[in-house]
Amino acid sequence: MTPLPLAPIVLTPLVVLALATVLTWVERRLLGLWQDRYGPNRVGPGGMFQAVADGIKLLFKQDWVPPFADRGVFVLAPAIGMMTVLLSFAVIPLAAGGIAGGLNVGLLFILAMMGLGVYAVVLAGWASDSKYALLGGMRAAAQMISYEVFMALSLLGVVMVAGSFSLRDIVAAQSGLWFIIPQGLGFVVFLLAGIAETHRLPFDLPEGENELGAGFHTEYSGMKFGMFFIAEYAGIVLVSALATTLYLGGGNGLLLPAPVWFALKTGVIVAFFILLRAGLPRPRYDQLMGLGWKVLLPLSLLNVLATGTVMMLRAS
Amino acid sequence: MLDTLRTLLLTFLHGFHRRATVQYPEQQPYLPPRYRGRIILSRDPDGGERCVACNLCAVACPVDCISLQKTERDGRWYPDYFRINFSRCIFCGFCEEACPTYAIQLTPDFEMGEYARPNLVYEKEDLLISGTGKYPGYSFHHVAGVPIPGKDRGASEHERAPIDLHSLLP
Amino acid sequence: MYVLPLLSGGLTLVGAMMVVTCPVAVHAVLYLVVTLLSLAMVLAMLGAQFAAALEIIIYAGAIMVLFVFVIMMLNLGQPDRDREKEWLRPRAWIGPGLLAVVACGELLYGLPTLSDPDGAVFPIDARDVGLSLFGTYVLMVELASFLLLAGLVTAFHIGRTLRERP
User: Fold this and answer.
1) In the prediction, which pLDDT does A1 show?
2) Per the domain annotation, does C137 fall within a domain?
3) How many CB pairs under 8 A join A and C?
4) How many CA atoms lie within 13 A of A48 on its CB side?
């Protein structure tokens, strides 16, 4: 039995949580930039400690569980959301190889954790026992299960080309050409599915603050809400890191060392996510599902078919 | 689809535009001279209070935030107390329009935040300024016909001397 | 060395017991998820990591979510919980319990006769699964896909919007 990689096990969650916390500030600054305003710039240099201030505020808020809620599940839901995202990071081959970067079903592991992440939203919606939360939870269930399908199908192309589910092997297979070139279609589908999976704007229908209050976390306050919040941002980092690993060649790059390249590429995709939020309105629910099943599903199937055909022709 | 991409591009280009935000405490916003902010009571050019306690401002006030009481000194009317409850005031400026003596005026100042509501009730000494406000030369008692100490009947500007009814001469 | 498998197996059993005895439907479904997850752990430790991942993705991640979804739609309340409790009286479960004990005894009796190859763990990866699916069991796969296609067509037929008849 190999010794446990203790340093990454301790460091990865801390780094991810810190990143997610800082990302709340980065997002607000970038949104400000793209909307011709400043965003939070008062606390600390350039407003950097805004996230810390928000965290302190959330910690000192009353930790209220509604009397009508299902207490156990209500408390469990944010923890599930946090755990699944943090566990997914275990297989991302970060700088030092991550915790289990070479796991031979790494990609499937991430998909499994994303699948379990649905429970956080659905159970939060159910346990709150309020109509808006329930509506949010039901929307989340249908949306996230659907988009999981397209995400898995879009990843299939990458797996076919790389010939492995292990993220480390997939990065190694991109030493020549990044997969975004042969798998551009899959990349687009993956990004869209990733937005829907982390229920980010423009696909944030489970939250939909102007129709459902705050959706599934309407009844949450204090640090329980904070956990949902941080888990969402950690989810963004996860999807961006995954897109970097699968399509943009991970840490491969000229001159600069691998971790820097990885951070740069991930940062660009995170910024793109924020740009989507700044620019696009939220679609109607049937439009969201229609986009999924009528556009993304055929596209991803086509991608798989084309990839398979090209591979067969090459082999023969 | 193309529209979506165009939207994203335009939003991205907004990153290079000038920001519309005014960084308020460091960078003061421009307030026009007729901005309707904190209410003051002004004085005559010779230093007397302009307000004659006619109560027109209190009547005009839609939210009833002005209260005052008349008193008389040397034949001249003054407010005994003059109280504006700024926690009610809506800064509509009707009081300024109603005032016949240009006493009550609104100024371009809005920084009146307080932690306790009673602190927003301004008394006469808080409201009175030492200057004339927006109308520098105007002095009601030098225009109006009412006699005051130092200015007899008919001594006002644009006023003829009073006609002596007992005299038969034209 | 056997701590992890035993822990996972124990969790599976406890979870399964709770699924049956829980009066609140959503809690029962959650315990079922726990059961599936610990079962996946057992599978992974036996070398079938691919199967473990698929079990989590498909069963725990998709089908169980649909269960929760349906239960949410049903809007169960206190009366339903009371009825569940009614069903959990000894009179109701003693028969199935006895049958389960018999089945367990049979399993325990038959367990030593199962041959253990040589104790080694062979990792089964996606390639092996694919080869056996599209080699040995290709007929089953085709039949299953027929079934799924029929289900798809039926769902599409039921779900289409009806036009007003002139």
Assistant:
1) 46
2) yes
3) 77
4) 5
Give the residue-averaged pLDDT of A155-172.
83
Q: For A182-193, what is the mean pLDDT?
A: 87
Provide the angle, in degrees to the nearest 10, between the axes of the packed helices C3-21 and C25-45: 160
Extract the tokens encoding A169: 């092997």
What residues make up the domain containing C140? 125-159
- pLDDT tens digits for C5-54? 888 888 998 998 888 888 888 888 889 999 999 988 888 888 778 888 88
Residue in the block written with tokens 């027109």: B56
Domain boundaries, chain A: 6-44+64-315
Number of helical H runs and strand E runs in chain C: 8, 0
Whether residues C41 and C83 fall in one domain: yes
Residue C50 sits at the chain A interface (C-beta within 8 Å): yes
In angstroms, rounded to a whole number, what is the distance separating the alpha carbons of residues A244 and A241?
A: 5
Q: Is residue C28 part of a domain?
A: yes
Same domain? For C73 and C148 the reply is: no
Strand partners, B39: B106
**A-chain residues within 8 Å CB-CB of B12?**
34, 275, 279
C62 in contact with A, Cβ within 8 Å: yes
- Cβ pair A223, A59 in contact under 8 A: yes
Please state the domain extents for chain B: 32-137
CATH architecture of B32-137: 2-Layer Sandwich (3.30)
